[in-house]
Amino acid sequence: MAVTKEVYTATATWTASQLATLFTDAFIDAGLMIDWYDSFVNSSIENRILEITYDGSKTYGKAYYWFMFTASGVSVSVASGWNTTTNVPTGTVLVDYFSTATNTTSNHASLVTGLATGTAAELVRYTSGSNSAYSWFTFRNGATPTPFFIAPPATTIAPWIDLNKVMFHHFITAKFFLHGLASSIEYYSVYLIGRSFMCSGAMRLSYSDAGLYYQSYFTLGYTAPGNVLNNTFSNYNPGAANGKLILVPYGFTNTNPAYTTNYQPVINGYSYSNYITSAMPIDFGVVFNYGASTFSYGDRIVVTASVEEWEVYGFINNSSVDTSKALIVSRVV
After folding, report:
1. Residue 69 is part of which domain span?
2. pTM for the full predicted model
3. What whole-number distance in Å separates Cα of residue 105 and Cα of residue 100?
4. Could you tell me if residue 293 is inside a domain?
5. Is residue 93 in some structural domain?
6. Burial of 55 (0-12, 13-18, 19+ CB in 10 A)
7. How far apart are CA 78 and CA 143, in angstroms?
8. pLDDT at residue 240 greater than cutoff 70
């Protein structure tokens, strides 16, 4: 099935409040919320809180995604609880939240920075046609897209994660890298706190180590080798990647005699995290392209014209025909 695509635009010259409205409308239409759990302004920073319930029967079954919007950027952090009267997170500092400061973005992780109000801001929503609980978003202020995904309430969390002790959250960003002739798509969960299921059981650093709370944590990734004769493992070794990458099944006649025709599939129904058991819906895909062409947001990967077409919303470019080009795509036809 194809996705539903909708574009939300703030025309120049937009304000921080108008930027926040893009996310408001897109998140409501995606079914992530009916409205923000909390919404307020402090020192010209627009604060917005998204509450998502992953298991309402558990002590830490809810996650609070804390957005900050300014005229120059969008940033996010997480908390295990939130007080709508005092407009601050609840619990224990450095465990359930990192900071209560609502007038600075310095304690948040940046989603996008260096925005220009004189250029239109655009947020694009791709909602799955096969499972409407799932949506990818892409933000643009100019040509470069920033794709991200928020794990919906329907996410099936791994059974060994005890939400009576830790909290689950996934604000996923897609990053793209080159490793020699290979490229990779790597998914990261933005922002960690002491209560985060990813670090609570193994943290040895002091809670006061601020660096711990800004990092993005690798959840899963995919890679494909270069398209050259005598391609060696070093051509597609993930090398500096922050976690294990899955080598996807690509076959080309000049590199593997087992293939009599080139095989370059769109990988769909894939997982984006080792911490969940539910796969991404089948109308979201991963593909590695070979050729001299470069890609832009909105380009199409055409499997069969007017029958199966995929739109590019995240990519890495390289002009070499021997280098794999990592793309994330949504099926639009």
Report:
1. 4-247
2. 0.93
3. 11
4. no
5. yes
6. middle
7. 29
8. no
Q: What is the mean pLDDT of residues 75-91?
A: 97
**CA-closest candidate to residue 312, choices 302, 304, 322, 321:** 302
Neighbours of 265 (CB within 10 A): 14
Instruction: Specify whether the CB–CB gap between 267 and 275 falls below 8 A.
Output: no
Number of domains making up the chain: 1
Do 222 and 250 form a contact (C-beta atoms < 8 A)?
no
Q: Each residue of 176-216: pLDDT tens digit?
A: 988 778 888 999 998 888 889 886 444 444 545 544 455 67
Helix (H) or strand (E) holding 196: none
Let me know if residue 304 belongs to a domain: no
User: 164 lies in a domain?
Assistant: yes
Q: CA-to-CA distance for 44 and 112, rounded, in angstroms? A: 18
Residue whose structure tokens are 């985060």: 196
What's residue 237's pLDDT?
52
pLDDT at 132: 97
Residue 229: which pLDDT band, with cuts at 50, 70 and 90?
Answer: low
* Residue 212 Ramachandran class (φ > 0 left, ψ -120 to 50 alpha, else beta): alpha
Flag whether pLDDT at 291 surpasses 60: yes
Nearest to 75 by CA among 37, 105, 46, 104: 105
